[in-house]
Each structure stands twice: as C-alpha cells, then as structure tokens.
Amino acid sequence: MNNTRKFYCVHFMSGRSLFRAHRPRALAVYMTTCLLVAALFGVSASAATIVWDTNGTTAGSGAATGTWGSSAFWSTDLTGSSATTATATNSIYDTVFSAGTNGTGGTITISDTQAASSILMDDNVALTFSGGTSLTVGGTGAYSGIFIANGDNSANTISTALVLGADSTIQNGGTGTLTISGGVTSPATANLVLANNNTTANGITISGSSLNNTGTV
Q1: Which residue of 50, 123, 126, 133 shows the fewest CB atoms closer than 10 Å?
Q2: Which residues of 159-194 are buried (b: 16+ CB within 10 A; e: fewer)?
Q3: In whole angstroms, what is the distance from residue 119 CA to residue 38 CA?
Q4: How many CB atoms lie within 10 A of CB 99?
Q5: Helix-, strand-, coil-residue percentages of the chain, each rounded to 5
Q6: How far apart (Å, rounded) are the C-alpha atoms in residues 8 and 122?
Q7: How far is 113 from 128, CA to CA, in rounded Å?
Q8: How far apart are the C-alpha atoms of 202 and 196, rounded to whole Å?
Q9: Nearest CA among 62, 56, 57, 45 for reference residue 108
C-alpha cells in the first residue's frame, strides 16, 4: 500500500466541496439529494490528514480504543506502519478512524475539549466517542463535519457534546445508525447539513439538549 488517497468530490448546488473516500479501495461517499458527483481522482495525502493508530509500528490500526487528547495514537502514515507521537488535534485536521484496513471497534474517550475539521469513520466496525466536555468539528481542513464511509454498516455513536466550529455536514454513507446523543450546538452560528445515503436505513439520530440552535439545518 502506498500513501496515495483517492477521493470522491461531492458538491452541493452551492458548490461547497464535501467528503471523499479514504484509501485506494475508494469508499464512495455521496449525497442522495441536491448534488453533483465529480469524477474519481487521486491526490497525495495532505499533511493535515491524520489517522488513528493504536498499535504503533505494526501495520494497520488495531482496536479503536484510547483517549483522544492523551493517548499518542495520531499518525500521518496511512498504512499505520510508523510510530505515533501526537495526542491532540485541532481544527486544521481531517481525522480518519483508522489507519490501514484492519481496524476493529471500540470506544474512544474524549479528554476535556478536542477539535478536528472533520471526522471520517472508515472501517466497518462499531465506534463510540464518549466522555470529555465537547468535541468540535468544522475548521480549516479540506472538509468540515462527520462522515460515515459507504460500506461502514455498523452502528456508530457520539455521546460527547458536539460543537460546530464552522458550517458542517453530518453524512451517513452506510446502513448502520449514527447516533449523536450529546446534542449539537453552534456558537459560531454555523449551519448544518444532514445527509443519509441509504433510504432503507435508520440514518442519523440526534438527541440531547439542543440541535444547532443558532444556525440553519
């Protein structure tokens, strides 16, 4: 495996570019309404794209466990073959769970407040994000929001309070339910797009104290 990614570019009628498939196996993430799907093309991995890798220099990613904010599990090596050193992220990063193709499910604990421009759940395993004060998505990375890759049909849960730092999309490309149970707020008056790619699936469930109370949905 090399360090080349392939992306599906997805555009709303507004022209805003959204998400893509993660590895050369080209997991297609696409919108079902109001979209234009661009051609598949290859690009080099950006330095602002990082992957969760819990098994150090062993290829692949291991179990999706640990603490986001204190566990040194972030890596720029898409194959998961390099040592990891970073513990925290910020709003410039597009984050991917997980490195390689052999990730297994588990719980990622959020330490205090963490941030990323985007989160892509890319393996067909159940992930839970819990704990902490808040998890902010939306920033200056290539994409803003939370994305479940096409073919990721497991149930995924975010129970940490979700904050929108910029206009964001929550998009489910699989058939499993994405549950966001800590509420969604947007102190930056960010707008939110919800997209479910499978008309026969449960899609996205949002509960909690509030939903995007200052922007539009």
Answers
A1: 133
A2: bbbbbbbbbbbbbbbbbbbbbbebbbbbeeebbbbb
A3: 21
A4: 31
A5: 0, 35, 65
A6: 14
A7: 16
A8: 8
A9: 62
Supply the pLDDT for residue 118.
97
CA distance 89 to 200: 35
pLDDT in tens, 129-184: 999 999 999 999 999 999 999 888 999 999 999 999 999 999 999 999 999 999 99
Structure tokens at 137: 């998505």
Task: Fill in the amino acid letter for 214.
Answer: T
| CA gap 167, 141 in Å, rounded | 12
Q: Read off the pLDDT of residues 26-55 as tens digits, 9 standing for 90 and up.
A: 233 322 222 222 222 222 334 489 999 998
Amino acid at 201: A
The mean of the pLDDT values for the chain is 78
Structure tokens at 203: 């899609």
How many CB atoms are closer than 10 A to CB 8? 20
- Give dist(CA 65, CA 106) in Å, integer: 5
Instruction: Find tokens 């997805």 and name the residue.
Output: 10
CB 91 within 8 A of CB 116: yes
Place of tokens 């790619």: 197
Residues with Cβ within 8 Å of 14's Cβ and at least 6 positions away in sequence, in order, are none
